[in-house]
Design a protein that fits this description.
Distance between the termini: 93 Å
Structural class: mainly alpha
Low-confidence stretches: 1-54
Radius of gyration: 31 Å
Shape: globular
Largest sheet: 2 strands, antiparallel
Number of helices: 23
Helix content: 55-70%
Strand order of the largest sheet: 1-2
């Protein structure tokens, strides 16, 4: 134990003489005023423990910052869940993670979410799981991404969760798709198959969902199939009640949206309060494209501002094309609508051309049909599409030339 210097007060007691036991002997420390005090052994134990704990916390926080890449705030938070007294074991854990392809950012993510991994018996409890995933064909890159996004995956039992889940997925999916599940959402490896995954899949088969739909669910929406069976069955019932065909994968997106009720209700409020949609408008849009109703409020406002206020679309017309909210405003909607507006001004396209079609076709086809085809008549058209010129300047120029 370190010698205590400059100690004046501990819990309200004047400390002049302190006896601190070391095994079977005692040593006497005289600090400050040598007059006797009523300082108790209990106070001393508290103080000694406090000093050691503070030292451990400082070492832990410094290690988390310097060796693991955590911010000061992250290190303070993580240090509440783990205490390091020496660096050797933690150094070994970090070295193994890095040797398995984890980047410095991914290492920081793992430690931030699961700091006790630094004091785990890594060789016996964690390393076998990494070896198992690589042995069944999961790439080092996919494994690192999966663990970084869900570090608690390494806390699951290899025999009771990871291996049974892998065998279940292999029985239902092509080999390469198993890695896609792990990369998409590894929480299915933490689910109870007997009370969730298997009963949920059985229910989907009962209501007519084909294997292709179940495969889609496992690969893209595995968190949904991991829900407790009672909750999952309720979502199936709600989707059926709203008229979704359970043989179609759209019903699975509807179930996900219904599961995210807070987000769905927020979107309903934005459309109805800010843009004048009726309840029927919202339900109609939801039935056509359920996942479109889960975009952020910011995305809703930006798309509606552009289509309604800049392009002059009636708000209720947008409700007929909810897929618009799945497109990038900056990379797709604005560039393509800008090109269409210029072509329309020059009379090179028909006014009744489906703007939805303009948005939906692929990049190469769009460029061929609407940009390169007319670039001789409008040299600025490619620049309009790339956003390198102000469309209003181009329109003003074209209107001047037509006079």
């Amino acid at each position: 134990m370190a010698v205590l210097h400059n100690l004046k007060k501990v819990h309200g007691f004047d400390c002049s003489t302190i006896f601190c036991p070391f095994g079977s002997t005692s040593r006497r420390f005289v600090v400050g005023d040598p007059t006797p005090t009523h300082f108790s052994i209990q106070n001393l134990k508290f103080f000694c423990t406090h000093v050691i704990t503070s030292k451990d916390e400082n070492f832990t926080q410094n290690y988390l910052r310097k060796s693991c890449g955590l911010s000061l705030e992250g290190a303070i938070s993580a240090s509440k869940r783990v205490k390091l007294q020496c660096p050797e074991r933690a150094d070994s854990v970090l070295a193994i993670l890095r040797n398995h392809g984890f980047s410095e950012t991914q290492v920081a993510q793992v430690v931030r979410s699961y700091p006790r991994i630094l004091v785990s018996n890594f060789e016996k409890t964690v390393l076998p799981k990494l070896h198992y995933f690589t042995s069944v064909g999961v790439s080092a890159d996919d494994l690192a991404k999966a663990v970084a996004s869900n570090p608690m995956l390494l806390g699951q039992s290899l025999e009771n969760h990871i291996i049974p889940t892998h065998k279940l997925l292999r029985s239902m999916l092509p080999h390469k798709s198993v890695g896609a599940v792990l990369k998409s959402d590894s929480r299915i490896f933490m689910a109870n198959h007997g009370t969730s995954v298997l009963p949920n899949i059985s229910l989907l088969r009962q209501v007519g969902m084909p294997q292709s739909g179940i495969s889609f669910l496992l690969v893209n929406l595995s968190r949904l199939v991991s829900l407790k069976h009672e909750s999952f069955a309720q979502l199936v019932a709600e989707a059926k009640e709203m008229g979704f065909n359970m043989k179609n994968s759209t019903s699975l997106h509807a179930m996900k949206a219904l599961w995210c009720k807070n987000t769905l209700n927020r979107s309903r409020g934005v459309f109805m309060m800010s843009w004048g949609w009726s309840e029927d408008d919202f339900i109609s849009a939801f039935r056509k494209r359920p996942k479109s109703m889960l975009v952020s409020e910011k995305k809703i406002m930006q798309v509606m501002e552009f289509l309604v206020n800049k392009m002059g679309w009636p708000s209720v017309v947008v409700a007929k094309y909810p897929i618009l909210f799945c497109y990038s405003l900056e990379k797709r909607i604005i560039p393509r609508f800008s090109v269409f507006e210029v072509l329309l001004l020059k009379g090179l396209v028909q006014k009744d051309l489906s703007l939805l079609h303009v948005l939906h076709i692929g990049e190469e086809q769009f460029l061929k049909r609407f940009v390169t085809k007319f670039v001789n008549q409008i040299p600025q058209l490619l620049s309009v599409y790339q956003g390198n010129v102000d469309i209003h300047d181009v329109i003003d120029t074209l209107q001047t030339e037509s006079l």
